[in-house]
Design a protein that fits this description.
With 135 residues, the chain is an alpha+beta fold. It has two helices and seven strands.
Length: 135
């Protein structure tokens, strides 16, 4: 199971699973995007990269997901897939490097508008990551 959804007042909460932190983050992004658009219909026309740094994993997860929402709002970018993702700790800083594919939103039907990622009930642990999205 990659991810599952839970009832949450006026928001959407999910847990994303994976064999390691990289897969959990990837599946969290896929869970969020499954709310926004049917990713299977998005064409992989544009390749992008991101590099993020944070002092803790919760903030890194928040920034990772928020990065995609900013891409959607600022350049109408829709995620198709994440080819490479690496989360690692160097000294006291967590770093995330990712490469991902997608397309511009024109011509695609979106399902739901996600306003923001929240820290409310956010968890990052050995079994899953949990996220609440403001819809």
């Amino acid at each position: 199971m990659e991810y599952e959804f839970f009832d949450h007042t006026a928001d959407m909460m999910f847990k994303a699973y994976g064999k390691d932190i990289n897969e959990k983050f990837r599946n969290a992004a896929y869970a969020m995007w499954s709310i926004i658009v049917d990713r299977q219909h998005v064409r992989p026309k544009l390749k992008k990269k991101m590099i993020l740094k944070s002092e803790d994993l919760k903030t890194l997860l928040y920034n990772f997901l928020e990065h995609f929402l900013i891409q959607l709002d600022s350049s109408s970018f829709l995620l198709y897939r994440i080819d490479k993702i690496e989360v690692k700790k160097e000294d006291s800083v967590y770093m995330l490097n990712a490469e991902y594919w997608g397309d511009l939103a024109e011509g695609y039907e979106t399902l739901e508008h996600v306003k923001a990622v929240t820290y409310n009930s956010m968890e990052v642990n050995d079994d899953f990551v949990q996220v609440v999205l403001d819809l």
